[in-house]
Amino acid sequence: MNRARRSSSVLLVFFCFLSLGTFGQQPKSLELSRPVRTWEFMGSFGQRAGVFGTEDGNFEAWVYPVKLLRNFHLTFHIAGREIPAASIARTLIVHPESTTIVYSYDNFEVRETICVPVHEMGAVIRLETNAWLPLQIEASYTNDLQLMWPTAVGNVWPGFDDKLNAYTISGEQYFGIVGAKDLIRKADAYVTDYGSSNESAFLLPQIQKGTATQIIAIAGSIKGHDDAAAEYQKLLANADQLERDSAKYYEDYLARTVSVDFPQDRKLQEAYDWARVSTIQGLVDSPYLGAGLVAGYKTSSYMARPGFAWFFGRDSEWTDLALNSIGDFQTTRKALEFILRVQRDNGRIPHEIAQTATLTDWWNKYVYGTASVDATPLFIITFDDYVTQSGDVDFAKANWEPLAKAYEFLNSTYDAEGFAQNQPIGHGWVEGGPLVPVHSELYESALAVQAERSLAHLAEMIGKNDVASQMHGAAENRLKKVEQKYWVPAKNTYAFGIGMNGTMDERASVEATVPMWFGLLDQQHSNAMIDQLASSHHSTDWGMRIISDEESIYNPEGYHFGAVWPLFTGWAAVGEYKYHRPLAAYQNMRENAMLTLNGSLGHDTEVLSGAYFQQHSIASPHQVWSAAMVLSPVLRGMMGLKNNKTTKTLMFWPHVQANWDSFSIQNLAGPRGNVDLTYSRNGGVISLKVNQAGGGFLQFAPALSLRAQVTSVEIDGKKAHYETETTATDQHVVVTVPLNGNSVVTIRFKSDFELGVPADLPELGSTSQNIKPISEKWSANQVEYVFEGIGGRTYDLPARGLESAASVTGGKAAGDHIEVTFPPGNGYVQQTVVVRFK
User: Fewer CB within 10 Å: C terminus or N terminus of the chain?
Assistant: First the structure.
């Protein structure tokens, strides 16, 4: 973790410690810090309120679903000067519960910590000051009371509450209060027949010299003055405790969900932890709609759309798959219950539900509610994943009717050939741009198959065997049609979709990795498809484009025809791991994860440029499903983890990077209680320590190269039965371990060989530089890799088992690495590396 230094002066630290009291003693479990980027998004996020701004300290405040103010900022008065805080913002420090901006000048430092308590309707701003001359802080903001899009408040009136000594803003029953202890009025917003001003400003009591802590509170209510006043007083009086409570909320969350320990990659571990935080920050408790998952956050400026801070069907469903993986079944169930509340009478699952949907004729006046088709099959898929991993079969029994209705709607979208269609029902993944209109996408056609498989499994679990048999048959018949229709032998690729005239849109797209995620597509065809997707034309150093940059319609800023989405990258990583392509998968997994520690600190953006490493100009910088696409690739992808409580089996099929020797995973949801796993590898021995008592089985199946020879497998020192499952690129040693206490699995082998690839982000604003692993082909006594790299550049690739190589062509063996130097050329060029064994 990065720990910001509070001062180089021992005396200053001492005085700060004395003045900060409980704040200064508060432990922080997670922390990120770096120099301020004034343009980057920052904020603090609760379930009932949020603060969204930029790292220069300018922000807006919401109490859902009401916006209270915007353009909140500080000014410092010292020695007759007025210094805008934004001009001296130096350091950003982020914790799960708060964001701190450090302002530093010649003779003072102010630390502004913004905290939205998890369960409160408001925010607290703590100002910790150390000054060598008398200093006074001014807070200014623009009153901006309005309901979240698409509704509105009527007349809005600014005011001042003498009893509270605080500023107010009201409209109908909506009420906001901003103030601080002993504030001094400076500028009042007003409305008269002759003029008006939306600007309010106040001064805090002057600090003579030394250290001080001052608190500003922002509160709101949808119930009027008294409720807002009670919230305001609570925030002001209990600011320190509320921040500690919020910190404890996140500490407890991290402690009860799946945690990882990656000694060889602490950055990946840190990104994983922050992705867990970022994902749960999508949980919003709306006063009108109840609790559910919103899609993301962004400043709204003078408007009333704060990013995607309203509810989405498919966004929450992709996020639920990650929540299931980390064992947060409670939040997944809340998200599914939310969807059940808003499901349409015809069984359709909505696409978007504004936080103010109940205050307007949302379903008839606006098209957004039923814009997409994919939310419905994803609902069935997510529901099955939740029940399978949590064991909550009663939830499936209680909601069989809505599940059946969702399938009835899905079934109504099929065309005469049996493909889920768009027109005129709704869009699939692609919403606009030159890739539409399209009759049907591979994406949604595959989701339809998986939805039938999922409904079949749900039916089995609740004893509806006739339905299960019917759905299994329908799914397999439809899958055959999908494989036959979408595979294009002449191009060795899966087509993007079926055009409106019935011809195939044969463009290769990352969407093909969605059916790979669920293991639907042919193994050989999928490997050929991955060869294309792994190239520099599809893959950047920060993620996957939706189509190749060689396509005529490609545009690096094209929202749906060229930009990079962390969502796509997560799809690709899980799909590539599923189809045993760990080199390409690892790059996608890790590059996606590193975005969490870049950009808006601790968050994952919605979309990036397809050509340069920078956030897209219209991106939502805190996108929840992007954070989920850090978690799923780590756990479902690299670790190959999935719990099945109905079969009482926890699957663990890891693909471990060549330079990793050990890692551990804690709090895995097992068949009957949590499971802890500790993996280590030393030479030709893999050891797995398993800690769980309660029953069931662990299916442990680590990947080895096709060259490796297993010599023995033991469980607790006794010979154990094992099987090997072989693919085109690796083999898995499959061992079944009873979960009845602490066990140690030992796998001994010889002649293994593995190669790794680097996966780091480039400098901000630059183009791709990383090596690209295109293909991997094994034969009797050699392995052939095809790579792309920048012409003339040399890359170091970590290797395990290199001592058994007789020769390396196209590269140079160097200890535990292979150096690959690419021939001269502009941009990316290809190089073949062949390792022949003794």
Answer: C
Flag whether pLDDT at 424 surpasses 90.
Answer: no
- pLDDT at position 491 over 50: yes
For residue 487, give the nearest of 522, 513, 517, 511 by alpha carbon. Answer: 522
- Confidence at residue 351, expressed as pLDDT on a 0 to 100 scale: 96
Tell whether the model's pLDDT for residue 17 goes beyond 60: no
Q: Which of 506, 586, 505 is nearest to 539 (CA)?
A: 586
Average pLDDT over residues 441-465: 97
Which residues face 170 on adjacent strands? Answer: 157, 175
Output the pLDDT for position 423.
83
Q: Which residues pair with 130 in a beta bridge?
A: 109, 211
Q: What is the pLDDT of residue 692?
A: 86
Give the side-chain half-sphere CA count within 13 A for 794.
8
> For residue 35, which of 4, 67, 79 has the smallest C-alpha distance?
4
What span, in angstroms and rounded, lies between the C-alpha atoms of 57 and 76?
A: 13
Two structure tokens written together for 505:
């849109």
- 49-54 vs 41-45, strand pairing mode: antiparallel
Partners of residue 297 on adjacent β-strands? 622
Do 378 and 444 touch, CB atoms closer than 8 A? no
CA atoms within 13 A of residue 460's CA, in its CB half-sphere? 16
Across-strand partners of 76? 83, 137
CA-wise closest residue to 652 among 258, 257, 253: 258
SS (H, E, C) 314-353: HHHHHHHHHHHHCCCHHHHHHHHHHHHHHCCCCCCCCCEE
Rounded average pLDDT over 115-144: 98
For residue 613, the surrounding DSSP H or E stretch is none
Structure tokens at 156: 């809005």
Q: Helix/strand/coil (H, E, C) string of 135-166? A: EEEEEEEEEEEEECCCCCCCCCEEEEECCCCE
Please report the DSSP string for 485-515 in residue order: HHEETTTTEE-SEE-TTS-EE---BGGGHHH
819, 795 in Cβ contact below 8 A? yes
Share of the chain residues as helix, strand and coil, in percent rounded to the nearest 5: 30, 35, 35
Reported as a single tens digit per residue, the pLDDT across 292-337 is 999 999 999 888 999 999 999 999 999 999 999 999 999 999 999 9
Segment 746-781, tens digit of pLDDT: 999 999 999 999 999 999 999 999 999 999 999 989
Both tokens assigned to 64: 């859902």
Q: How far apart are CA 114 and CA 125, in angstroms?
A: 5
Question: Does residue 223 sit in helix, strand or coil?
Answer: coil
Angle at 143 between CA 142 and CA 144, to 5 degrees: 105
Where is 384: in which H helix or E strand? helix 375-390
Q: How confident is the model at residue 12 (pLDDT cuts 50, 70, 90)?
A: very low
Of the candidates 354, 308, 291, the residue with the CA atom closest to the CA atom of residue 152: 354
**Alpha helix locations (H) across 391-489?**
393-398, 400-412, 442-461, 465-486
Structure tokens at 181: 């202890």
**Could you tell me if 765 and 613 are in contact, meaning their C-beta atoms sit under 8 angstroms apart?**
yes
- Checking if the pLDDT of 13 tops 90, the result is no
Asked if 184 contacts 202 with a C-beta cutoff of 8 angstroms, the reply is yes
- Can the peptide bond before residue 582 be classed as cis, meaning omega within 30 degrees of 0? no
If one counts every other C-beta atom within 10 angstroms of the C-beta of residue 585, the result is 26
User: Do 591 and 604 form a contact (C-beta atoms < 8 A)?
Assistant: no
Alpha-carbon distance of 577 to 654, in angstroms, equals: 9
Reported as a single tens digit per residue, the pLDDT across 221-250 is: 999 999 999 999 999 999 999 999 999 999
CA distance 539 to 587: 10
DSSP character for 823?
A: P
Q: Which amino acid is at 208?
A: Q
